[in-house]
Amino acid sequence: xxxxxLTILALFVTVIAFSQTKVGANVVYGTSSxxxxxxxxxxDVSEKFKISPSVNYYFPEDIPGVSTTSxxxxxxxxxxxxxxxxxxxxxxxxxxxxxxxxxxSYAAFSASSTNFGLNLGGGANYKLxxxxxxFSEIKLMVTQGSQVVxxxxxxxxx
Length: 158
Hints:
Elements: H1 2-17, E1 21-30, E2 34-44, E3 49-58, E4 66-79, E5 81-82, E6 87-104, E7 109-127, E8 132-142, E9 147-157
Antiparallel strand pairs: 1-2, 1-9, 2-3, 3-4, 4-6, 5-6, 6-7, 7-8, 8-9
């Protein structure tokens, strides 16, 4: 088991060291969770294949006496089809972990849940400059309480 973990870690470090890395920020809207903000990275595995981890925080509903937190942790694989010099489309598939917590100041109540699921969707990239790329995505998050998520933002090439 220890050798497997070390091998996976070594492969991950190698991919990061020899890949073009992008980092960015995005606005996200989920049909069940509402509006949020996120951070995202992209690591080249090959010229057309990329791995993209992200973290999204969804703004809580304004309910007096109730505090909520909703976050998603995701890792998607993208396969790019370059349509023009600056424009490309990609299907995506990946995994997600959805975390939600709720607490009430009226009653001594708090609860949290963590659910695992799949992401299926697609996106588009538009190269704004040598270092900046705009992106938009739509994906179905298949988990307990599945939803469609719209995502748009900007990535910066390191």
